[in-house]
Write a structure and sequence with these properties.
The complex is a heterodimer. By secondary structure, chain A is of the alpha/beta class. Helix content of chain A is 39%, strand content 14%. In chain A, helix 7 (189-192) links the parallel strand 6 and strand 7 (196-200). Chain A starts with a strand and ends in a 5-residue tail after the last strand. Chain B is built from 11 helices and 8 strands. The longest helix of chain B has 22 residues, at 206-227. The chains are: A alpha/beta, B alpha+beta. At the A-B interface, helix 10 and helix 11 of A face strand 2, strand 3 and helix 2 of B. The structure holds FE2/S2 (inorganic) cluster. FE2/S2 (inorganic) cluster (FES) is lined by residues 136-138, 167-174 of chain B.
Chain lengths: 396, 282
């Protein structure tokens, strides 16, 4: 059978055909440089501005110039963090969470090596932030709080507004990595009271290679690169026009389709309950209530994630594992570890992430494909007794 | 996605010899659920020939394939032939494994060793990690295993060691220790360099010195004394002063001074540091 059921949308999404259509002319006849003095290029500048407005709307930004186009989500995160620190040189303390994306976490580790003090806010078993810890960490020396909106592995949504209030009270700059929230839940940067907000186009049906950093009016930040006047000097370099146009269209569609996310949620719940009901050795990783609608992360005990993925792949189902092997690192995901998911389940954790293009039939097919895979791997597992259908005592 | 050979793919999709053997003549168990890798190997051995082999594994695609390959490679072989199989042979049988997955082949070989030891009636600890010092806490990888893998596979870097044993692949706090072991093993390689190289050693940290003293006493000195019915107890280490007490036959020996200086101190100077001083406490 040659089919693909794509349930790895938190990794990347398909380009929406409407987005592609809107982008194509800019790869063909409309190739002018928006900075040029002639109409051939100048016209393109207007398309850029339209894209900027559309993204501003998706984020609830007040002014279109608060939107800065970058090359990816990682660049947006780096610009936000390094750019803020470059401004507040005398503040040496930074805060983030233990479950951030590597784009933030690895940068924080580097900053620590350079002499910054970093506080990593822990999460509980459900993946929810320890707000007390966060509150206590905030100090006069704090240069920045950078915490994600929604977690990429579990989908858990963090209390961004509450954090915004705290930061505002203390006068601490506040950055949000919103890569996994954009297009899935409503975003209102004004209500959140954040200063900086990063998103990435390919997570909501634009092509890869496009990011945005929202920089609230008046936010103190220095650029990472120096060059021309593009993006008001905050991110110089000739614009990726086709990418920006595509991102604008994708943002518009994402906003329009937000109500349709309820359908995605229903599908996700169908998948999730289908899995949880069928197996005795499975648990949900992450709070059931506060989650983006498209993500579920389930941990199968006593079997290993990569093996599950390879078998799913055989059946044409693409998902992602929270375990070691698939990512090329050897330990279970730092997110699951921070949540205290026991090793028995962390190694066998699988993330299914849906999109508005996912169908009910695909979900049902996945539910029906799993038993054979899981039973087979349990049979191979030395920690599972196939005869009694129970786990054997495990020495840890 | 990993770049697996067709053979690996075939074997994880259709693993051979999965399961347990009732009344197995030998069982070898390695790894643990914490490490994310575990393998139990069951053998039926008659007249010195491995008649049947089965396995259960908790692991990724290449762990399943390596275990399956191992069983196929040993069925029908004599124990002596099976003993000679290295992790390289398992990887070769599979047409190669990604470097980061070589530890799966090492696990196969370890399980085989354990099983054969079990068959001989040798004392088998439940996990490899209970033998020798645990260097990597995250994955329970011991010093002897790291050394063996370095020697057998000619490993040169810490990343190699991680790929073959997983040690260092998580929190990374064991990486300096792995580096020390690697340096020691690399220096041993050119046979002639031995004593000369020792002198060029970097100054030891206190912890490292203590570790080396303990290892040298238990691996080198004690076995020699035990041959003569004696024994030695390490009482304390204070900088470069090592306090020991002689036990058993050595305790009452008239030439115990000579033993201390010529044997204990000499060996510690050879293996640890040139200016170690041994002091006897009674
Ligand atoms: S102790 Fe070795 S990786 Fe953590």
């Amino acid at each position: 059978m040659n089919r693909t059921v794509y349930l790895d949308n938190n990794a990347t999404t398909m380009v929406d055909p409407e987005v592609l259509e809107e982008m194509l002319p800019f790869l063909k006849e409309r190739y002018g440089n928006p900075s040029s003095m002639h109409d051939f290029g100048g016209d393109v500048a207007r398309d850029l501005e339209r894209a900027r407005m559309r993204v501003a709307e998706l984020l609830g930004a007040e002014n279109d110039y608060e939107i800065v186009f970058t090359g990816c989500g990682t660049e947006s995160d780096n610009l936000a963090i390094l750019g803020t620190l470059a401004y507040f040189r005398d503040r040496r303390h930074i805060i983030t969470s233990k479950v951030e994306h590597p784009a933030v976490l690895n940068l924080y580790r580097k900053l620590e090596r350079e002499g910054y003090r970093a506080s990593y806010v822990p999460v509980d078993r459900d993946g929810k932030l320890d707000m007390e810890f966060l509150k206590k960490s905030l100090g006069d020396d704090t240069a920045l709080v950078s915490i994600m909106h929604a977690n990429n592995e579990t989908g858990v949504i963090f209390p961004v507004e509450e954090i915004g209030r705290l930061c505002r009270e203390r006068g601490v700059p506040y950055h949000i990595d919103g890569v996994q929230a954009a297009g899935k839940i409503p975003i209102d940067v004004k209500k959140i009271q954040c200063d900086l907000y990063s998103i990435s186009g390919h997570k909501f049906h634009a092509p890869k290679g496009m990011g945005v950093l929202y920089i609230r009016r008046g936010t103190r930040i220095r650029p990472l690169m120096y060059g021309g006047h593009q993006e008001r000097g905050r991110r110089p370099g000739t614009e990726n026009v086709p990418g920006i146009v595509a991102m604008g269209k994708a943002a518009e569609l994402a906003l329009q389709n937000l109500p349709a996310e309820e359908r995605v949620r229903a599908l996700r719940d169908r998948l999730e309950s289908g899995i949880l009901a069928r197996f005795s050795n499975v648990q949900l990783n992450g709070a059931k209530d506060a989650r983006v609608p498209n993500t579920t992360n389930v941990g199968f005990e006593y079997i290993e994630g990569e093996a599950i993925l390879l078998y799913l792949n055989e059946k044409g189902i693409a998902a992602s594992s929270g375990s070691a092997c698939s990512s090329g690192s050897l330990e279970p995901s730092h997110v699951l570890r921070a949540m205290g998911v026991p090793f028995t389940a962390a190694h066998g954790s699988i993330r299914f992430s849906l999109s508005r293009f996912t169908t009910g039939e695909e979900v049902d097919y996945t539910i029906s494909a799993l038993p054979e895979i899981i039973d087979r791997l349990l049979e191979i597992s030395p920690f599972w007794d196939s005869a009694t259908k129970q786990c054997r005592p495990v020495t840890i | 996605m990993w770049d697996y050979t067709d053979k690996v793919k075939d074997l994880y999709k259709h693993p051979k010899n999965v399961g347990t053997i009732d009344n197995a003549d030998a069982v070898g168990e390695v790894g643990s659920i914490v490490c994310g890798d575990a393998l139990t190997l069951y053998l039926k051995i008659e007249d010195n020939i491995i008649k049947d082999a089965k396995f259960q594994t908790f692991g990724c695609g290449s762990a399943i394939a390596s275990s399956s390959a191992l069983t196929e490679m040993i069925i029908g072989r004599t124990v002596e032939e099976a003993e000679k199989i290295t992790n390289r042979d398992i990887a070769d049988y599979l047409g190669g494994l990604p470097e980061q997955k070589m530890h799966c082949s090492v696990m196969g070989r370890e399980a085989l060793e354990k099983a054969l030891a079990d068959w001989r009636g040798e004392e088998v600890a439940p996990h490899e990690e209970t033998e020798g010092d645990v260097i990597c806490q995250c994955f329970g990888v011991t010093d002897p295993l790291i050394r063996k893998v370095i020697r057998e596979n000619n490993l040169k870097t810490v990343e190699d060691v991680t790929n073959y044993t997983k040690a260092g692949g998580a929190c990374g706090s064991c990486i300096p220790k792995i580096e020390d072991i690697l340096n020691e093993e690399l220096k041993k390689q050119p046979a002639s360099a031995g004593a000369e190289v020792k002198k060029e050693k970097l100054p030891l940290s206190n912890i490292k010195r203590m570790q080396l003293v303990e290892e040298t006493i238990s691996d080198v000195v004690r076995p020699i004394l035990q041959k003569d019915g004696g024994n030695i107890e390490l009482v304390d280490i204070d900088g470069k002063k090592v306090m020991v007490a002689l036990r058993g036959a050595c305790a009452n020996c008239l030439v115990s001074d000579v033993t201390l200086k010529n044997l204990v101190q000499e060996k510690l100077r050879e293996f640890v540091e040139d200016d170690i001083e041994v002091i006897e406490v009674r």
